[in-house]
Design goal:
Elements: H1 11-30, H2 33-49, H3 57-75, H4 93-104, H5 107-117, H6 123-130, H7 134-152
Length: 153
């Protein structure tokens, strides 16, 4: 359950229990299977190198994946992905219909909405993952929901 401190005693346990979820998270932020796999791979490498100094590995992993996904979007802001992913990431069926609308949102709003409604994180956990204030999270969520509501009506 997101937001609850999990007992993760080895890097291998962290990888086995969180790899697929982190790929999905990065995919929902970046919109690309290839980029999501690369971001998550790099995040695990970074965590492996600092394993002994990390207090809460799942939270650190989540924050690392979010930050690296957002960094990628900043680098490619003007360029949109054109090729179709050869092996699309499996996402819940009810998300398929709104995924295109979500991907059109600005990166920060999209990230906040994905963390809130995909991972079911609290406002404080989202603020930590995005390295922003809880009030900013509330604003991003409100504006993101309003934009989606207008697009759906």
């Amino acid at each position: 359950m997101p937001g609850v401190v999990e007992a993760i005693d080895t890097f291998e346990t962290l990888y086995r229990t969180h790899h697929a979820d982190m790929v999905r998270l990065s995919y929902l932020i970046t919109g690309s299977t290839h980029i999501a796999e690369e971001v998550v791979h790099d995040a695990f490498l970074a965590i492996r190198a600092r394993w002994d100094s990390i207090r809460i590995p799942p939270a650190y992993l989540r924050r690392t994946v979010v930050n690296r996904s957002r960094s990628h979007l900043r680098r490619l802001r003007a360029e949109r992905e054109a090729p179709v992913d050869p092996q699309p990431v499996v996402i819940p069926g009810d998300l398929d219909e709104t995924l295109q609308l979500i991907q059109r949102l600005p990166a920060k709003r999209r990230t906040a909405l994905v963390l809130r409604y995909y991972l079911d994180l609290s406002i404080d956990d989202i603020a930590e993952a995005m390295d922003i204030r809880p009030g900013t999270v509330k604003s991003l969520l409100h504006r993101g929901r309003e934009t989606l509501r207008k697009q759906l009506s």
